Amino acid sequence: MTAGIPAREHPVTHVADLPGRAARYAEWPSWADPAVVAALRDCGVSAPWAHQTEAASHAYEGRHVVISTGTASGKSLAYQLPVLSRLAAGEKAKASVRGGRVAEPPARGAAPAVTALYLSPTKALGADQLRSVSSLDVPGVRAASFDGDTPMAERDWVRAHANWVFTNPDMLHRGILSAHGRWATFFRRLSCVVVDECHSYRGVFGSHVALLLRRLRRVAEHYGASPVFVLASATTASPASFASRLTGVSCVAVTEDASPRGARTVALWEPPLLDELTGENGAPVRRSAGAETSRILADLVLEGARSLAFIRSRRGAELAALGARRILSEVDPSLVETVAAYRSGYLPEERRALEGALLSGRLLGVATTNALELGVDIAGLDAVVLAGYPGTLASFWQQAGRAGRSGDSALVVFVARDDPLDTYLVHHPAALLSRPVETAVLDPANPYVLAPQLACALAELPLTLPELEVFGGAAAQEVLAELAEQKLVRRRSSGWYWTSRDRPHAEVGIRGTGGEQIAVVESDSGRMLGTVDPGSACFAVHPGAVYLHQGASYVVDELDLETGLALVHAENPDWTTTPREVVDISVLSTQEKQDYGGVSVCLGEVAVTSQVVGYLRRRPSGEVIDHTPLDLPEQSLRTRAVWYTVSAELLGSDGSDGSDGEVGTGGHRVGTESAGPVGTGEETQADGRGPVREGGRTPGGAGLVPARVPGALHAAEHAAIGLLPLFATCDRWDIGGVSTAWHEDTGEATVFVHDGHPGGAGFAERGYAAIVPWLAATREAIVSCECPTGCPSCVQSPKCGNGNEPLDKAGAVAVLGTVLGALRQHGT
Ligand SMILES: Nc1ncnc2c1ncn2[C@@H]1O[C@H](COP(=O)(O)OP(=O)(O)OP(=O)(O)O)[C@@H](O)[C@H]1O
């Protein structure tokens, strides 16, 4: 694979061999309905794998269970078997009563008619799973979807007759729970709730879904049902506790994967720095991960390997496929047609055709977004290329798991993008290959999520005092008191009641926390393309921004925040846009504080004020074309943050000149980026200047002259934001940061990293809990990058409000070394 690469380039930083494993089979459980077993056998499943029987039996016997095993390990069968068996048995009992073949009332032990609910994070996955269940054609099973695409005419039929309803959290929230009276029979019989791909319920969305599932349980209980929850998850750490937090009921976990797996070789790849191009502030530019992926994909196709390349953006996926085709056209034109792109927006039939073509070898190379990650039955490929870290280890293994055939060894190539987390990972393979997959973070106690969810719960059914615990006890009580003050709810001796005639459901968006969404509309056609959270509108759809939708590209002409409208026109420019913003932060309350002799680490509530002041246009190579100023209003965000302070003495400055130069108003400024774990190592001077001021330096101090402090903190902040996703299952775009050489609320040099959502989604807490490994990884990521004074792979941020100035890479290494020294010396 490295054959075509110039001898001076050494992109492969690590190679690991992961062994294969043979399948472990189990018996079909004795309770399994013969018709279901026969149907599964007909589909080629001769016997279940051990973990499938184990999980299925928990569910059938009424224990809440989460199955958390690898890609293509047959998680669907684990829930289909118990649900279909119950549905089939229930229908038989009903039929025999109706047919008068059983004495009335039904004999003891005869199953009552039951129903089941299936929830998936996306409509496409729900449709795939429904198709799979329907194709089994088990007698008595009437599976149907109920989502935004279900025609009105069919909805009554589904409510009245379906016994397995496939839906998503959005529809459960707006269309089912809000009108539960119309679903009374369904709820009365509800015996099982399947929550598929539950690891995707994280952050604000996850917190909403956690409360939604509590609402679902309460409504079911109201009708006398107590459904068992069956959750399917990619491999994650502590699946039982995550599933229990998500559902609010105690779940057992099945984690031992008994499905067969081929051996795999994993190569970590860092694109080389280019001599001929420079990026922002003259920083060096690496060959892009997309271009590198095209090259690798073309080489794999030439070798005849069936390969899948995962790219983060839809446009990137298309460009990677085009790039590979272009390379092949020069080498072997007959292979050009064996490469294609795949992205969301494809019809199920197109997806099936594509899966078939890839499995049969008619297609050899497919470049895709993560649209192929969930619920697509492609496994056993020869190679998978990942262009950039997909955000979580769970996703990394989900994507990598598509490679691996029994017999031959398969290849996984991870190509680093130019950001600090990717840089860290390719230089610290253990962080990628040997760490347990992280647990998804969610925080159902976030008042910004809890308040609207409680409003919906109350509008569904009055809330009694004992039920308060279900929604978080004291946190719920506080929120209810506020709702009562707003005269939305009334307290009576028996509990809380919704007072308004209006149902709050339509106003509550469960995929974000911000009120009215901004509609993105194509001016020419008047077609609505999508919506954007009001909190991120100035960022995502500012005038001049490139907006991507279903693989097509648009440019924003106008953003009207008053009317909630962004007008765009179709255009496919040869550049991308990056907004620039100025951010200020103030501490509202400090919840936790630890002192470590000159360094303190805090967790608390903050107010963040931000204003998008312009944007950069860049070529795909990273080259900056120009900067355009913008005049947009300030936005404010009340959220949670983790921050650390460093004394002037430890920084090595005397504190008399703590100004941070260009760093925004009041000595504040912002940046944001992505992130990784442990490492100590000697303090490395990352550039020729070196951080150290010899003589008079505080022991363990950073030894920085005052003028270098702002740049050092700023660089340390960018890299820390970059690495937090490795500890907090967030995306770098979910968090932000501010650093300053002197902050008026702390009275010291401070680096803040804050949640990007109102009320927070639990990310700051994670950062606080993992402060040492997080900052150690941050420092390691910076040290690992061989650029001289900072580039996007270490300390530059793609959304820095200050155009990535000032940044002091060596200073950041010194500050982080000092902070870590203090944490380790004074920590418990
Ligand atoms: N016991 C079995 N024996 C043989 N094949 C099986 C068995 N169980 C499931 N399969 C097959 O394995 C494939 C993957 O199953 P499935 O899609 O349910 O896996 P999954 O764990 O849900 O995957 P993902 O990680 O993509 O969500 C399917 O083609 C399915 O038919």
From TrEMBL:
It comes from the Bacteria. SMART domains: DEXDc (SM00487), HELICc (SM00490). Residues 56-235 form the Helicase ATP-binding domain. Residues 653-703 are annotated as: Disordered. Keywords: ATP-binding, Helicase, Hydrolase, Nucleotide-binding. The keyword Hydrolase applies. PROSITE patterns: HELICASE_ATP_BIND_1 (PS51192), HELICASE_CTER (PS51194). The keyword RNA-binding does not apply. InterPro entries: DEAD/DEAH_box_helicase_dom, Helicase_ATP-bd, Helicase_C-like, Helicase_put_actinobac, HRQ1_WHD, MZB, P-loop_NTPase. CDD domains: DEXHc_Hrq1-like (cd17923), SF2_C_Hrq (cd18797). GO terms for molecular function: helicase activity. Residues 296-448 form the Helicase C-terminal domain. NCBIfam families: DECH_helic. This is DEAD/DEAH box helicase. It comes from Amycolatopsis plumensis.
